[in-house]
Amino acid sequence: MSRSGRCDPSVFGRLDPRPRAVRPNRPRLWSLARVLVATTAGVLGGCATYHALPLARTADLAPRLGLLHATVQVLPSAGGSRHIDLSKPLSLDDIGVLAVLNDPALRSERGYLELARAGVLQASLLPNPTGHLTFEPLLSPGVSPSWSASLTENVGAILTYRTRLAAAHFALAQVNADLLWRAWQVAQQARVLALELYWGGRSLKLARRDLALLDREVRAVRAATRARMLALSVLAPLLMARASAAKFVATASLTELRGWQDLDALLGLEPSVRFALAAPALRPLPSTLKPWIADLPERRPDLVALRLGYRSADENVRTAIIGQFPAFVFGGQWDQDNTNTRNAGPTVAFGLPIFDRNQGQIAAARASRRLLHEQYQSRLDQAVGMAESLVVRIRQLHGDVARASRAARTAEMMAAAARKAYAADNLDQRSLADYESAALKSQIEANALRLSLAQARVALTVDLGLGLPRIGLAPPAHPRTL
Q1: Residue of 410, 194, 386, 195 whose CA lies nearest to 292
Q2: Residue 69: strand, helix, or coil
Q3: How do residues 402-435 score in pLDDT, each as one tens digit?
Q4: Alpha-carbon Rg of the chain, whole angstroms?
């Protein structure tokens, strides 16, 4: 078209075999190529690179207690950190903290936290725009080469961005709460093992003393029967008692060995490591437990984790409902044909919701939410029922321990009186052994009840989350009105 606005027909009929019409576009195409090269280099410069992570070929078990991680980070107001003195007998709390710091299984579960963080990162990213570029050079005489370019973006991913991100943040908080619950259980499991080793060790020492008394008595009776001073029938019940005591010692020794191996495994130690245990000192229980039971959903990390999982599933339901609307892709397109005619305009692509309206995803999301709803109610009912039953058990064990302690003191007083009578030649050796054996057995029974009471109190501590702060529901990074 000429400057006057009239069409010049010679323009359409002019065919020049020399590529003079292409020359004006060369600088523009060269600039476009340089832009593409620079963009590609910038994108590749920000890409992740591969780094090898070789697997270990040897076990990572500490051969002695001093090699364990023994420093725990606490709040700055409490000093910033606390170091456990491993040269002294370890208390129950120290053993629980060491188990949290060094348990190999707990260390491996921390990887789930990194996976959840990666999920949050993935949910926070929008899909990349899709670009399309074509270039068709002239293979026969023409005015200019043709090219086309388009840039589109999936609008549906933008519509579900907030719900997907909220679901990922709730899932991350759920994994964090689950990890806290697992650490709490590991700490209490280590404390229970330490209790069993302490009271079991004391009972084992008493049982070995009882076995030594019976061995001495068996030797004395055998000597008397060989001298025809006692009938052979006197030896039979004594041998039965000795066999029973030997069986108890063997069983207690095996139980102690297994307990040490389990505790070493929790602490990341080799199975042969042994260390001193301090006398157990349990914290007093609250005078009334009703407020603690009522506050369970805010304190127990596993219940909080289920609530967070429910919130995440609820956001997934919202995402699935939004996803039932047709897929919508919006962008722009630019092109030039070989007559040097250029066009530009928007481009839109959308799906027709005829067969799939995201019904499957909606049903699956609702089913997952319903499952978590029922799991939470079941776990809450179980926690409350367990707490109430433990309260009754502890009350009964308190009375049993008091009665057993009184019986043990009475038996020890009778044994002391028997020793005085034996020293005054008013009691024979066989009767003295019976009194001493009865005193040792009563102490063993009292220790067993003390262990049962301590185990029940630790179980109640676990069930009620005593010592744990209120957790509550963590809001997503981008709060929204639900």
Answers
A1: 386
A2: coil
A3: 999 999 999 999 999 998 998 888 887 778 888 8
A4: 40
